[in-house]
Amino acid sequence: MPADIFCVPCVSQTAVPLQFALYELGRNPQVQEQVRRQVREAWAQAGGDPGKALQGMPLLKGTIKEILRLYPVGITVQRYPIRDIVLQNYHIPAGTMVQACLYPLGRSPQIFREPTRFDPARWGREAGERPPGAAAAGGKGVGAGFRSLAFGFGARQCVGRRIAENEMQLFLMHILLNFRLSVSSTEDIKTTYTFILQPETPPQITFTSL
Prior knowledge:
disordered N terminus; alpha+beta; 8 helices; single chain; two-stranded antiparallel ribbon
């Protein structure tokens, strides 16, 4: 199958998380300004080169991760173990479907501090955040590297991941450089799940030129 066909499902589903991203930035103006400040600085230092600019925007990358944590496009990741395994004292025979439910995972206080708060900085190295159980474990905590699973993981993760991430980052970068976002209501968006997780109704967002 051609590579471009493989990438279509991933890239074509960036519109929905971008809706969530615009809404969360709009209802969190302080976060929006922090991300915009970093975007402007990186853009200026890169001389207007988008590829170089993105390398200096960890908060923008954190924004994408944060949105996919709160609003995963696909709400589960499945794997079939090829041999018997034991997970937290549960014996799982080979060939049994093991399913990670991303929506409750992303909002679990056992995994994230203040899980309902929109905080792109939690993903930055400088934030130094560890899962709440990490201190007791004496390190990063078991499974700390699997807190972001929106694109799957390992050899079978989404083949269009990098394209989708770059597309969303570039879109938000240009939006933040040119517009201030605001929303009329700060209530949580009601979501529905069909093939993907999406808003019940499109969020109302105001774009004001800078």
